[in-house]
Each structure stands twice: as C-alpha cells, then as structure tokens.
Amino acid sequence: MITNSDNSSYSNNVCEVLNDLRKKVPLVQCITNYVTINDCANILLSYGASPAMCEAYDEVFDFTKISSALYINVGTLTKEQEEAAVLAAISAKVNNTPVVLDPVACAAIPRKNSIIKRILELGRVDVIKGNIGEIKFLAGDACEVRGVDSLDSGEGALESCIALAQKYNCVVAATGKDDFITDGNRSAIIQNGTEMLTKITGAGCMVGALCAATAGVYEDKLISTVCAILSMNLAGEEAYEMCRLPGSFRVKLIDCIYTLSEEKIKKEGRIIWQ
C-alpha cells in the first residue's frame, strides 16, 4: 500500500495521472539513443501515449511546438542529434513544452556534460531523470559508475537529488534499488521494482520516456514523475512473476504496462513521502 500518512492528496493524485494520460493521449517527442529507440516507442504506446521519434535538426523546433512533452536522452548522440536536442529544448522553452532530460553516461563520458550544460542554459528542463550514479555526479558528489550503469549503493542519493533540484528549479529523479524523486521541497521514495529490470537493455530509457508522457498531461511534475517510475516498477514486478528469463520478461513488461490500472497503483505502490 502507498505510505501516505500526511500526504494522502499526493498519493491520490499519483493514482489519477494514469487515467488522465489515457484520456489525453499525449504526443511525446523523443530524441533518444539508437539502442533503445524501439523500446521507448513501444512502451509509450502501451502506456497510452503517442510516440514520435523526431530528431532531424530541420524538424525538431516546429515539432516540439506541437508536442505534449519532449524527452531528451543523451546516450548515443550524433552531432546532428546534439544540435537537434539543444534546438528542441529551446523550442520547448519558447512554446511551454515540458522537457525530461536523461543524462545517460554523463559520469563516464565528459562530452555529455557540455551537451547537458547547453540544454540547461539555453532551453527548458522540467525533470532530470537518471540513475543514482548519474544524478550524484551531476550534483557534484562522489559516485560509482561503469559506463551507463550505476554501481552506487544509494547512500546520500536523496540529498544529491534535492541539491540538483534546487540548483535547476526542476524535479530530479534518481533510479536504483530505491527510487528518489524530489522537487527540492517535497520528496518521495519508491520501494517497488525488480532486479530483472537491470537484466534488459533500455529499462532506464523506457522510464524516461514514461516520465515525459506523464509530464505532458499533469501540471505537478513531482506527482507525474512518481507515477511514471512507479508504473514501470509495478509492471516489472508483475512481469517477473510471469516469467523469470530476460527475453520473455521484456515482452511481458510491455504487456503489463498496457494492463496497468489505477487500482493496482493504489493497492501495490510503496511510496514514502517526505
């Protein structure tokens, strides 16, 4: 059950986000990495959103204008993608389009940080979603990473999230064994999930795409981000109960996102509000 002794309204709102999303069917523009682009598109469709993998430099400014939200994932950026990501973020700022930034491998590849800095300085970012290692790195704290993967235990993760959220005036989410989400004032810790999510490629990217989908339909980005991450974790738990091999798990994960209900979120979500 959702732990919400003093924050029942927050938890009730989390349960409502999914219904809002499926009614509104947000158009989610994705500039994401080539390894997981198909996974992101499929999980968005199953969740109830409309994905658009629009990344051409000559198209992104205008497309961002008509989108419900923009998801930027810096995992495998080419030079054109890099410039397109910055231009799309600028368009989002001009056109009031919510943006989710996924700083993939920022702790391992220095070039990523110059791109992230440009996006934050020139454009708009509503949510920064990364693994614990990436978020701690962006906050200037010590972290343990291996390439795109976090090896960090999670100690001090919430403090890093709060510092980063206050610095950029946005919501920050760090995913790991526990997931930490904050807007710098309010915070939530999600204790759902399964280790099997670490055995498939793209789980983090799919979560980022879902965060963009919910951001596109709900004004409170803390609540929308909590809903997206909790949705992924609950679908992962259910998929793992059905099959415990990674290939089959990936297929079932998409199925379970499709069948996810508000009732399941309310009944099985484990959230600590702070």
UniProtKB/TrEMBL annotation:
The keyword Kinase applies. ATP binds at K129, T175. Its EC number is 2.7.1.50. GO terms for molecular function: ATP binding; hydroxyethylthiazole kinase activity; magnesium ion binding. InterPro entries: Hyethyz_kinase (IPR000417), Ribokinase-like (IPR029056). GO terms for biological process: thiamine biosynthetic process; thiamine diphosphate biosynthetic process. Its cofactor is Mg(2+). Pathway: Cofactor biosynthesis; thiamine diphosphate biosynthesis; 4-methyl-5-(2-phosphoethyl)-thiazole from 5-(2-hydroxyethyl)-4-methylthiazole: step 1/1. Substrate binds at M53, G202. The keyword Kinase applies. It comes from the Bacteria. Keywords: ATP-binding, Kinase, Magnesium, Metal-binding, Nucleotide-binding, Thiamine biosynthesis, Transferase. It catalyses: 5-(2-hydroxyethyl)-4-methylthiazole + ATP = 4-methyl-5-(2-phosphooxyethyl)-thiazole + ADP + H(+). Catalyzes the phosphorylation of the hydroxyl group of 4-methyl-5-beta-hydroxyethylthiazole (THZ). Belongs to the Thz kinase family. This is Hydroxyethylthiazole kinase. It comes from Clostridium aciditolerans. The gene is thiM.
